[in-house]
Lysosomal Pro-X carboxypeptidase
Amino acid sequence: MTLGAGKALLDRAALTLCFQLLCFVGSLHAFKTQLFGRHGGFFHSPEIPVSYETFYLDQKIDHFGFVEDGTFKQRYLVADKQWRSPGGPILFYTGNEGDITWFCNNTGFMWDVAEELGAMLVFAEHRYYGESMPFGADSFSDSKHLNYLTAEQALADFAILIQNVKLSRAGAQHSPVIAIGGSYGGMLAAWFRMKYPNVVIGALASSAPIWQFSGMVPCGDFYKVVTQDFAKSGSNCDTNIRASWGAINNLSATASGLEWLSEEFSLCAPLKTDKDMLDFKSWLQETWVNLAMVDYPYKAEFLQPLPRWPIQVACKYLALDSSVSDEQLLHGVSQAAKVYYNYTGSSACLNTSETATGSLGVLGWDYQACTEMVMPMCTDGVRDMFEPGEWNFQAYSDECHAMFDVRPRADWMGVLFGGKEIASHSNIIFSNGGLDPWSSGGVTHNVSESLVSIMIPDGAHHLDLRYANDLDPPSVREARKLELSYFWKWIRQAAKKHQRVAKSG
Amino acid sequence: MTLGAGKALLDRAALTLCFQLLCFVGSLHAFKTQLFGRHGGFFHSPEIPVSYETFYLDQKIDHFGFVEDGTFKQRYLVADKQWRSPGGPILFYTGNEGDITWFCNNTGFMWDVAEELGAMLVFAEHRYYGESMPFGADSFSDSKHLNYLTAEQALADFAILIQNVKLSRAGAQHSPVIAIGGSYGGMLAAWFRMKYPNVVIGALASSAPIWQFSGMVPCGDFYKVVTQDFAKSGSNCDTNIRASWGAINNLSATASGLEWLSEEFSLCAPLKTDKDMLDFKSWLQETWVNLAMVDYPYKAEFLQPLPRWPIQVACKYLALDSSVSDEQLLHGVSQAAKVYYNYTGSSACLNTSETATGSLGVLGWDYQACTEMVMPMCTDGVRDMFEPGEWNFQAYSDECHAMFDVRPRADWMGVLFGGKEIASHSNIIFSNGGLDPWSSGGVTHNVSESLVSIMIPDGAHHLDLRYANDLDPPSVREARKLELSYFWKWIRQAAKKHQRVAKSG
């Protein structure tokens, strides 16, 4: 493979990897809506039935300009059965790139702690996702209609929504509000506390890569974490994946090799062209990344139905020594990939375009990645197990321009949200999983007494936000305890402040 | 006069009063540009020659959306003769609604302290004012072109400008930046620290009415302060102004009375219609407000050439007892008004449309007042010396709609900038003059250890930002000393932090 081709692959990978945050959603959306229906429902957790009410708030399409004066209906979900009124706290999920019912049903931590805190739960849908479409069916029709899809607009929606909830519900006026989110939702939770500290008393930003932007962390760190996960999950596991790309390239040089590969991987569409090969390798790369994100300690159905510690299961097929043939190596690779795609044995064939579905959610994140959310990624094949590929902003920008007629602004998020200079803010917990590739862009050290980092060495992507599980490692149990103790601390702070104000007023 | 007419008057007054912040600029703009020219120049302060360089930075027209991808040239002025490089601090003037050279030449405090601090001075022009026109000559052509005239866009300009100054000047990379502004510029300075604490280590917000918005302070407080200024500046002074409206109404009932009024006030255009009378009274009301804002302890030429303590001078003409006739009372009023309009004796006649000139600056603030900057005002004729008039948001909104095809959002500034809930921010000095009507919406008590209020009982509108003067009252001398000591404190904090980061990095 030429360097040019390698670069092109990475360019594409870099672009699509930015969307991993939402691949959660893209893939699961269809699945979940079947389970839960649209207006409330019950999650199939063994312990806790989830029930909520669905509401809609009229929001300005454009908070930052006055010419576009239209409104849209923002969906939000409220569960107040455990709420101690008046004044009980509100846990506010800062919805990310997908249908809010999915986040509602998957953020078990909020449900688990609601009773102890006497908390109302509110889950706010992010504009341009789920049902919260600023221009209805036209929202994605062109870049003009997409113009109001930014994190700043979403934060303004949240601020106005909270104001509305507090004013419209008896007993909620003085309720302290805590922002909670995971992944991009975690970034929003942290940014929300930074920009609207008057609205939320603190934030739990779980697996929130707020430093994954240009110039803040080395572009190769993300894939290094993926590689480490495989390295420690089985003998020779990362080494054999690193070797697999050469084997794939060798086989793809001949028609019979292509045929063999297509059959070995049970591909729905046989590999034929160079582009097919790029797509195939990109898909495989994403598979390893996804496995790293959902390397949970118990059977779960987050991106796909998977066994506990799925990387260990996959790596069993890759415990081969270096003397094996290309075909033997790639047989192991295909078996490992099928742990991810076909654990239940129900897939007749594998589709290499599967990790990026065509749902609105995906398109929305594509647009965000092409405007504000520019997260450089690169690989070198040495510190990581992937083919080398540089970060190429120009190619990325050109791709965005072709796709949406916009150009990304690589530096804007750093200016707007402070980059690594966040020490003057307060009351934010940054929790990160040691197994989660996104920890590469996370805040993994205490910035100040009240900007704290919680590391969960055995945790994948925002494990702490999931329901408690008997198989949870001690590190995540401790993390949740600590998070809860910060919540209590912030709530006590707010109560004291409220008393002072009430006395002096 | 009927109540309806009174209300209409106040509605207009409320609208125009919101623009007082910029009447500074509107009136003085033409005057100043003659004095100083456009690219640098020398201020006629007795002590300190002002010299600076003029630069232009390409800024995005829309920081918060990606469809409008155009740029414009933002003007900024730099004076670095006193700057201690590397690392000396930067004092950054957050330009408000007018030509930045005017603020540069009038913010003597910055020039006075530059040497002691070893500071670089940067004065940033606010978009849509002076030369910083996003769409050139078309910037005010319609509401579509005005859409990017908001405080948020201006703050983003400032953040990007500082990033640029720090990266492009040798020795500036680690320079701590302090935001300084007066009036609306002071609001911007405070908001800048709140929203971009990574960019500025602190802010001096002088005479910044950040609480003048809906629901934060009583709408009548502003005029109460004006009234108090007159009450304490001469015998019966406020009482006679309160009585003057009735006298005016009496005289305006007859043609001869109108003629008498027109002659007595040396009006350029004689009073004829009811509308003329409303305009006349509104103009007179604004005159008293303006006098209150510029009630400085020395001869000055801020809004108009004026004697020292101009209200005391005006009140000499109003020290009449209650037995005087309407004509005698109004003769006193006209003499008092002429202290403001004709102190130098050079005005042949007075123009009742004079306090709101037609310059771009005025139109810009009109638009801001019609969108974000909604500052309710009212009078009751009891606690203040004006004709009673309620705050009427609907009428205000309708007027805005007619003028710009936009509707103001009364609550937005409160949500965006936290309203009275600002305690979680840090390092902001709110200085207020006890004589300044805008102190009604200012932060006049310490909010926390690092959100401090400095009261200057003898100060009018941002007196502390003016050049030191031999006639300055002790209170403003003390205020400036205290401000400087906070600057040093913040600079030391930043230096410590920088050392810590450098050591750990």
User: Anything to note?
Assistant: The longest helix of chain A spans residues 474-504. The radius of gyration of chain A is 23 Å. The interface with chain B takes residues 60, 63-67, 69, 143-144, 146-148, 150, 152-153, 156, 159-160, 163, 195-199, 371, 406-407, 409, 411-412, 415-416, 418-419, 421-427, 497 of chain A (CB under 8 Å). Residues 1-47, 356-360 of chain A have pLDDT under 50 and may be disordered.
